[in-house]
## 1
Amino acid sequence: MGQFAHDFDRRGFLRAAAAGTVAIGAATFAGAVPAAAAQTPATDARSRGACLTIPKDAIGIQLYSVRDKVSQLGFRVVFEELSRMGYKEVEFAGYTQDTSILGRQITVPEIRTLLDDNGLRAIGSHIGIGAFRSNLQQELDNAEILGMPNIGTPNAPSDTPTVAGYKAAAEEFNGWGEAATARGLKLYQHNHWAEWAFASDQPEVRLYDVFLNNTDARNVYLEMDVYWAFVGQFRYPGFDPAAYVRKHPYRYTLFHMKDGTSDPNAADGYDMTEFGAGDMRYQRFIHAIGPFGNHHGIWEQDNAPGTQPDPPGSLGAAQHSYTALADLLS
C-alpha cells in the first residue's frame, strides 16, 4: 500500500472487522425474522441454492456507502479493500477524492486503471439530473471510459408530484435514454420513497406508475432500491415491490440491497442498518421477483459512515454486509 500506509492500517481494519458489532449469518434470515416476514410454503420449497436472478458471484457496492473512505483514503485503498472482501462490482457516486492523495484530482481514466488492477467492474453511476441536462455527452463519455454498462440518477423524476409533472419527466428521460442506448448504455432511475406516493392532482394514481408507463422500455431502465420501496409500501400501502419486477423483469437491471429494522413508530416504518442486521423480507423478495431477468445486487447503506467505531467504520459495515449478502444468495 506504500504511500497510503500512514492513512490506513490493513491489519487494524481486519482486527476491527473481525470483532464487528453486528452478528451476521444464516440465523439473521431464519429465527430473527418476525413471523409476518417468514417464508411461505411456496418459497420455502425453493431451497437454498435454487437459481436466483440476483447472482451471488457479482455482488456490488454503491460507493456512497463508503464515501468518507473514498474521500479520505482515495479510490486505490478503497478498491483494494473491497476486492479483498469479495465485492466484484461498484456503482459510483462521484469521481473525486481528496486532492492531497495525488497532489491533484484523480482522473476518470486513472479510476478505470484502479478498477482493472483490483479485478472490479463498474456497473453503474449515480449522476444528478442537472448533469444530464447540462453535460449528457460528457457523462456518457465517462461511463464508456469506466466500462460501465449502466448510467443513472438517484433523483426523483420530477419535483412536481402531479401526473403532468411525471409525464413531462418521462419524456425527458426518454430523450436521455435514447442517447444512452445509442452509445450502448442503459439509462436508469433509482427510487426513494416519494415516487410511490399518489399524485397530488389525481390521488388515485401512483406517481411511480406514471413514470413507468410513460417511459420507453427500450431506453429507460430502473434500479429498485428495495429498502425505499418497502418504506414506500409502509407510507403508501397497496402495492408489492416484487410484483413490479415480476411484471417488468428486464427493466430492473439493478437492485439496491439495503436493510432495515422494523419500527412502526418511525415515519418510514424502518430504521436503516447493515445488511443482515435488519428484518426486511429479503428471503421472500429474492424468490418472489420471479425467474426472469438478470438483476445485479448492490449493497448500500446511506448512514454507514459514523454508525460504528472507526476503524473499521463504513468499511466494517461493507465487510459485514457483503458476508450477509453472500449468505442470502447462496
## 2
Amino acid sequence: MKILVAGGNSQLAKEIKYIIDKGSSSLGDIDSRIIKGEVISLSREELDITDLNMVKEVINNIKPDVIINCAAYTNVDGCESDFKGAFKANALGPRNLAIAAKEANSKLLHISTDYVFDGKGTSPYKEYNRINPKSIYGKTKALGDDYVREFCDKYFIVRTSWLYGRFGKNFVYTISNLGDMNDSIKVVNDQLGNPTNCEDLAYNILKLIVTEEYGIYHCTGEGICSWYDFAVEIIKLKGCNCKVEPCTTKEYPRPAKRPTYSALDNLMLECTIGNTMRYWKDALKDFFQSQINDKKEV
C-alpha cells in the first residue's frame, strides 16, 4: 500500500508517520499492509494543495492508493483577517486533492473540524446533524468538505477537535509551559468539547484507510470537558505548582467566534470499524507517560 500524506509538517502527519515507523500505537498494532507499504509525507513546498496543476502532477507521478490530507489553514483567528488564504487552503485545496484522487482512483481521507457546527447544541453532534459554521475557518473547512464529497467517490471525511500530540504546538504544551512560568493562569470555562490525543486519531485513521467504509466520521476523545477542565488536568499531570482559575470567553475576546458547545459523537466509528477512541483523561495521562518514556529512550 502506498500512502501520500499532504501537510507533512503538521502534528497529525508526523504522528501518523511516527506510529507507522514504530509499527504500533498505544491502542494496538498497525495493519501489516501499511507497515509493508510506502509512506510519502510531503511538505507544503513539495505539495502545495492550492495549486491544482501541481497536485495533479504529484499524485499522477506517485499514484498513491491513499491520500491523507493533513494540510489546512488552522490559525482560527488568522483566517478572519486572511479570508483568501483560508479559502485557498481549506476549500480549494481539498477540492484539488479530490479531483486528483478521482483521476488516480485513490482513496482520500480528509481532516475536518468541529468548527463546522454553530456551537448551540446541548448534546454531542452526530455525523448527520446539520452544520452551521460561524467563523471563516469553519466556513472554509465546511466548503472543503463539500468539495471532497462532490469531486471524489472514495472519501473519508474525519472531523476532530481540540487536537494535541507529541509534535508541534498545541494546548497541552502551551498550558504546561505557562504552568512552569506562572503561579496562576486563567482559562475559559464556558466552551465545551472533546480533547483528542493525536495518537488516537492517527491510529483510527490508519484503521479506516484499509477499508471501504467511506463517509463522514467524528473522531474525538470520549467525554466532554471545558478548556478549564482540560487545563486543570494538564497542570495536575505535569505536576506544576500553578493554580488554574476559570474565566469567561467575554473576558478574553478573540477575532473568531468559538463554538460554545462542539462535542462530537463518534457514532460512525462505532457502527463501522469500532470506536477505539479513549476517554480524554486516560489518553492525556498516557500522553504524559509517553513523553517520559520518549525522554528515557533518547
